[in-house]
Design goal:
Blueprint: H1 2-30, H2 35-54, H3 61-64, H4 70-77, H5 83-96, H6 98-121, H7 133-150
Helix pairs in contact: 1-2, 1-7, 2-5, 4-5, 5-6, 5-7, 6-7
Length: about 150
């Protein structure tokens, strides 16, 4: 059972990172994150939660990961960001679970701080619109890859 769980984890993580890449490229090119990608991440996230729970991990980490997306939903409702970015963060939280999603969110804040500094030094307005999909994707992928080195 342990070997199957490990294989599932590697395949699910690889598919998740592949989907994040799709979201990033689409957000850069079209300024839109595909709903199909969001739906696939949601499905893989739900399956991942069931498999990890069956393997003995704490079940509530995964639905609690959705909490990470709520500030993004509020930002979208206030027209501060796109709906795709908010949905992407929501499903990433579900896939990763709360502890990893918190790490991803922290990494994302560091990256966004760096982008803000860059915008200030290049004389651009802070209201410059940037695609958040790649930032979300990189922070989540880095967290996933980082967990392999910690184990």
């Amino acid at each position: 059972m342990h070997e199957m769980t490990m294989i599932w984890g590697i395949l699910a993580d690889a598919f998740f990172i592949l989907l994040l890449g799709w979201c990033s490229v689409s957000d850069i090119r079209k300024r839109q994150i595909p709903n199909r990608a969001i739906l696939l991440i949601l499905i893989v996230g739900i399956l991942n939660a069931f498999v990890c729970t069956a393997a003995g991990q704490i079940w509530w980490y995964y639905p609690a990961g959705l909490i990470i997306g709520f500030p993004f939903i509020l930002s979208w409702l206030n027209n501060k960001m796109g709906a795709g970015d908010a949905k992407l963060m929501l499903v990433c939280g579900l896939f990763q679970g709360l502890p990893a999603a918190l790490i991803s969110a922290g990494l994302m804040l560091i990256i966004l701080f760096g982008i803000t500094i860059y915008l200030l030094f290049t004389g651009r307005n802070l209201k410059t619109k940037i695609p958040l999909g790649p930032v979300i994707a990189f922070s989540c992928a880095a967290t996933i890859v980082g967990t392999f080195f910690i184990r």
